[in-house]
C-alpha cells in the first residue's frame, strides 16, 4: 500500500523527496480528522504559514478528552443511527465491554422503550434539522433522556450529536410522588354503599389500615406512630401504632415544645422535624428501644394542626429531604381523609337528628294536647273518682314517656353531633333534664320552644292559655314539677303577669319568664311582675334568638339553685290592684269556660 502524507497549506513547502501523488492537500486542521480514517496516511505536514492555526488542532484534542471523560453520555451517529463514536460514560451505561462503534444506538442500549414526547427523536432531527428530545426506559429499569442535534457543518449534515442524561432518580421520584397522591385519594375513598353499611368505627379502622399499608409498602416506613390532637385539651391521643413499644404507645403527650418529645414539639409548632441522631437530640423520646433516628411531621388542615406522624429507624441519619417531602405530602392527604370522615360522621348524625326532630316535632304538640286535656279532666274528677284520676295520671306519665323516649333515641343515635357547638360545655350541662313549661297561643312559638330547648336535653311541655298552664302546674308531682315557666305577657284568657299571680298561690316560688314583643307591655305587666318577684333578667323579647333563650333559662335555673342553697324563698307575688274577675280565682281554681 503506497504511503500518503497530509499537507496543511502550500504543498511547495514539502521536502523535495516527497512525491506529489503521495500528498493529500487540505485547507484546515479540521479536515485532517476526516482524512485520518485512511490507513495509508503516515503523517501530517503543516506549512509554516499554517502554524498559528495549530491551536485549533490543540483545541480539538482537548475537546475530545473532555467529551470522553464528561459525566454525561455523548455519541456521534450517522444517518443510519450507527454509533461513529461514544464517550466512556455512554459505553459504561450500555454495559458493554467491547467498543460500541458501528452498533445502532438503540441496540447499544439493548433496545429500550421510547417513552416520548418524540417517539422518533433521531429521525426528527435528521429530517427537520432541529433538535429533538425523548425519554428511554431500559430493561434494568433505568431512565435516560436523549437530546439529538444535527451537525451544523454542511459536510457532516447527515450526522447527529446525541447527549444522554441518566434521569432514573428523577423519574422514580416522580413515580413515587404520583403513587403517593393516588394513595392519598384512596385513603377515605368509600362508595356510597360502603358508607351506608359501615359504622363510624369501621370506617376509622379502614382508614388506619390504609394508612399503615401505604406508609409501609409505598414509603417503606416500618415504625409508625400517629397521634390526633384534642383541640380543647391539647392532648395527643394515639390513633395508630406500628412497631412502637407498648409503653411508648400509651405515653401521655401534649402539644407543648418542652417535655413532650419531638411529637409534642411538632404538634405545638406545626413544623416538621428530622432527628438525624437520637443520641445528640435533646428533644427525642424513643418509641422503640433501638431507634437511632426519626422523622416527625404535623397533620395539617387549613393551617390547623390535627395531629402528628412519627417515623423511627434503627439506622443513624436514615431520613433525608426526599423522605420529609414525601411524608409531608402524604400527611396532608391523611389530614383531608380524617376531615372527610369527620364530615361523614357529622352528616350522618345530622341526618339522624333531622329524622328524630321530624318525628318529635310531629308528636310534641299533639302530646301536649293530651297532657292539657288529661289534667283538665283529672281536675273534674278529683274528689269524685280516684280510679279515674289514677288512670289519667297514668295517661300523663305515658304521654310524657313517649316524648322522652323519642328524645333519648335521638341522643343515642347522635351522641355528640346532635348537640350544637358548645352544647357539651359546662355552661349547658345544667340544662339537661330540666322541665320547662311554655305558655303561648302562637303554635309556632310552642314548636320553636320544643325544637330549641330539647336539643340541649330540656323536657318541654306547652299550653295555649293561662288556665291550661295552671292545671299543668297543679297536676305536677315532685318528679314533674317545672323548673322554668315561660309565658307570653298577653294570653287568650288573661295576662302573663296574672298567670304569675295564680301560680304563686300553688307554688312556693314561681320561676317565671315573660315574653313580649319589642315595646309591647299592656298594663305595665313586666313592671308589676318585677315588683312582685320576677327576676330582673326574666324577660324575653320576641322574636328571640337561641342564645338569648338559653341565657335567660340558665339565669333562672341558677337563681333556683341559689334559693335552694340559701333556704330563703322570695315572697309570693301579690297584686293589690288585681281586677275583680281575677280575684274570684284567687284560690287557684280556673275560671269557667264560656264556650
Automatic annotation (TrEMBL):
- Keyword Cell inner membrane attached: no
**Positions where 4-aspartylphosphate occurs in the chain:** 488
Q: What is this protein called?
A: Response regulator
Assigned keywords, A-Z: Kinase, Phosphoprotein, Transferase
Q: Where is the Response regulatory domain?
A: 435-557
Q: Has UniProt tagged this entry with the keyword Zinc?
A: no
Question: Please, which domain of life does this record's source organism belong to?
Answer: Bacteria
Give me the ranges of the annotated region Disordered.
567-595
Q: Which organism is it from?
A: Novipirellula rosea
What would be one Pfam family of this protein? GAF_2
Amino acid at each position: 500500500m503506497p504511503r500518503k502524507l497530509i499537507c496543511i497549506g502550500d504543498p511547495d513547502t514539502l521536502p523535495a523527496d516527497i512525491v506529489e501523488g503521495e500528498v493529500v492537500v487540505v485547507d484546515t486542521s479540521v479536515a485532517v480528522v476526516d482524512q485520518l480514517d485512511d490507513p495509508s496516511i503516515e503523517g501530517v505536514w503543516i506549512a509554516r504559514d499554517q502554524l498559528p492555526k495549530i491551536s485549533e488542532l490543540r483545541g480539538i484534542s482537548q475537546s475530545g478528552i473532555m467529551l470522553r471523560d464528561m459525566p454525561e453520555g455523548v455519541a456521534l451517529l450517522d444517518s443510519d443511527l450507527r454509533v461513529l463514536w461514544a464517550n466512556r460514560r455512554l459505553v459504561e451505561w450500555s454495559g458493554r465491554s467491547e467498543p460500541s462503534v458501528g452498533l445502532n444506538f438503540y441496540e447499544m442500549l439493548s433496545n429500550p422503550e421510547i417513552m416520548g414526547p418524540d417517539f422518533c427523536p433521531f429521525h426528527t432531527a435528521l429530517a427537520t434539522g432541529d433538535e429533538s428530545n425523548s425519554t428511554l426506559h431500559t430493561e434494568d429499569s433505568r431512565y435516560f433522556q436523549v437530546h439529538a442535534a444535527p451537525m451544523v457543518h454542511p459536510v457532516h449534515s447527515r450526522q447527529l450529536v446525541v447527549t444522554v442524561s441518566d434521569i432514573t432518580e428523577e423519574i422514580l421520584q416522580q413515580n413515587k410522588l404520583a403513587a403517593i397522591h393516588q394513595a392519598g385519594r384512596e385513603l377515605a375513598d368509600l362508595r356510597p354503599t360502603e358508607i351506608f353499611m359501615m359504622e363510624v368505627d369501621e370506617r376509622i379502622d379502614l382508614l388506619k389500615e390504609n394508612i399503615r399499608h401505604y406508609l409501609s409498602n409505598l414509603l417503606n416506613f416500618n415504625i409508625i406512630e400517629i397521634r390526633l390532637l384534642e383541640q380543647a385539651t391539647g392532648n395527643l391521643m394515639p390513633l395508630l401504632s406500628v412497631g412502637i413499644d407498648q409503653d411508648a404507645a400509651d405515653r401521655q403527650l401534649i402539644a407543648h415544645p418542652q417535655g413532650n418529645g419531638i411529637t409534642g414539639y411538632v404538634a405545638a409548632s406545626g413544623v416538621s422535624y428530622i432527628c438525624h441522631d437520637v443520641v445528640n437530640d435533646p428533644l427525642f423520646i424513643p418509641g422503640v428501644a433501638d431507634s437511632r433516628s426519626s422523622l416527625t411531621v404535623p397533620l395539617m388542615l387549613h393551617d390547623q394542626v390535627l395531629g402528628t406522624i412519627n417515623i423511627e429507624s434503627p439506622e443513624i441519619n436514615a431520613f433525608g429531604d426526599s423522605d420529609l417531602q414525601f411524608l409531608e405530602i402524604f400527611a396532608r392527604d391523611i389530614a383531608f381523609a380524617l376531615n372527610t370522615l369527620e364530615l361523614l360522621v357529622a352528616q350522618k348524625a345530622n341526618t339522624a337528628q333531622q329524622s328524630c326532630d321530624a318525628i318529635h316535632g310531629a308528636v310534641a304538640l299533639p302530646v301536649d294536647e293530651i297532657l292539657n286535656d288529661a289534667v283538665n279532666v283529672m281536675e273534674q274528677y278529683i274528689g269524685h273518682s280516684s280510679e279515674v284520676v289514677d288512670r289519667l295520671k297514668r295517661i300523663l306519665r305515658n304521654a310524657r314517656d313517649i316524648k322522652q323516649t323519642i328524645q333519648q333515641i335521638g341522643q343515642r343515635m347522635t351522641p355528640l353531633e346532635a348537640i350544637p357547638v358548645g352544647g357539651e360545655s359546662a355552661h349547658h350541662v345544667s340544662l339537661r333534664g330540666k322541665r320547662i313549661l311554655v305558655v303561648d297561643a302562637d303554635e309556632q312559638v310552642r314548636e320553636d320552644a320544643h325544637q330549641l330547648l330539647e336539643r340541649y336535653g330540656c323536657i318541654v311541655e306547652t299550653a295555649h292559655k293561662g288556665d291550661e298552664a295552671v292545671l299543668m302546674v297543679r297536676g305536677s308531682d315532685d318528679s314533674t314539677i317545672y323548673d322554668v315557666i315561660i309565658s307570653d305577657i298577653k294570653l287568650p284568657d288573661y295576662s302573663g303577669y296574672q298567670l304569675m299571680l295564680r301560680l304563686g298561690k300553688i307554688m312556693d316560688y314561681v320561676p317565671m319568664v315573660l315574653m313580649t314583643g319589642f315595646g309591647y307591655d299592656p298594663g305595665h305587666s313586666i313592671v308589676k311582675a318585677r315588683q312582685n318577684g320576677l327576676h330582673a333578667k326574666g324577660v324575653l323579647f320576641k322574636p328571640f334568638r337561641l342564645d338569648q333563650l338559653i341565657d335567660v333559662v340558665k339565669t333562672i335555673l341558677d337563681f333556683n339553685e341559689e334559693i335552694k342553697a340559701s333556704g330563703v324563698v322570695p315572697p309570693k307575688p301579690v297584686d293589690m290592684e288585681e281586677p275583680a274577675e281575677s280575684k274570684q280565682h284567687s284560690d287557684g281554681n280556673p275560671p269557667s269556660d264560656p264556650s
